[in-house]
Amino acid sequence: MARIGSLLVLLSLACSLTLCIGDDESNYGGNRGNLSPGFYSSSCPKAEEIVKSVVAQAVARETRMAASLMRLHFHDCFVQGCDGSLLLDTSGSIVTEKSSNPNSRSARGFEVVDQIKAALENECPGTVSCADVLTLAARDSSVLTGGPSWMVPLGRRDSTTASLSGSNNNIPAPNNTFNTILSRFTNQGLDLTDLVALSGSHTIGFSRCTSFRQRLYNQSGNGSPDSTLEQSYAANLRQMCPRSGGDQNLSELDINSAGRFDNSYFKNLIENMGLLNSDQVLFSSNEESSELVKKYAEDQEEFFEQFAESMVKMGNISPLTGSSGEIRKNCRKVNS
């Protein structure tokens, strides 16, 4: 039985537990400032309802959007903290993070964020930050695809800057080694358990051929495929991801349930059927990580509980609070 049991289903009845807010900042990456699940209870009481409604419509149109919105939150938090910097377009002195290697031609869902923000501005102008929109949309994306729910600490403010170099250097790449990936997590105050649990978000969504081609044809620079990749799975992948061309061709991150948030991602890793190198190394390159993969493969409730806890922790990376930053009227540009 998991440590908190039904918490993920009935979390609203237990917001005094540390998973909701956390009295000890060390549990959630520190620097969480004055974040609170009830931050908008008076200023914009329908905020969460509005976000969920727009996300639900988007996911109903395209299930893949859930993974895309979750990825935006992750890529935002790893650069300058969870401050909505990823959403800024290039303007004046700002060079957009959307053009970085991890985001170019792959980050998506910005139009959905625009729709959410427009609805919030209509309901309560100048109140809900774009950074909080991303955080809530990530939680709702989990729930709408069958994953866990959690209370989201709110009160982040939006940055007035972006960092293209931070986006290029801080976000783990699909072909990074295990140690490189782990170091990029620890640099954000996250640990190995967070790395494995948060990687479980790859139970939904797709990845481009260009992100895993190296594993199929030239993993170590010697013209040979990745030996840890299950052979029949690799053969199927080669059919849609040729040695050259087809860069934008998509393959499911979780071959068994790309549209359902569950623990089959971890079962795939045990069968050497993780799509990305950054997925498979969680099982093949580190004993402690491998044990966590096995645990989550055997116990979905355990995975859901840890995923929720790690998402709260990631969402609390260096938020702007108080008078820092601003509340953007348009998520794509700073207020004039």
UniProtKB/TrEMBL annotation:
GO biological process, one term: response to oxidative stress
Signal peptide coordinates: 1-22
InterPro entries: Haem_peroxidase, Haem_peroxidase_sf, Peroxidase_pln, Peroxidases_AS, Peroxidases_heam-ligand_BS, Secretory_peroxidase
Keywords, sorted A to Z: Calcium, Disulfide bond, Glycoprotein, Heme, Hydrogen peroxide, Iron, Metal-binding, Oxidoreductase, Peroxidase, Secreted, Signal
Domain Plant heme peroxidase family profile: from-to ranges: 34-335
TM annotation in the entry: none
Organism lineage string: Eukaryota, Viridiplantae, Streptophyta, Embryophyta, Tracheophyta
Cofactors, names only: heme b; Ca(2+)
Protein name: Peroxidase
Residues that coordinate or bind Ca(2+) 2: T203, D254, D262
CDD domains assigned to the protein according to its UniProt record, in alphabetical order: secretory_peroxidase
Cofactor details (free text): Binds 1 heme b (iron(II)-protoporphyrin IX) group per subunit. Binds 2 calcium ions per subunit.
Organism: Eutrema salsugineum (Saltwater cress)
Active site positions: H75
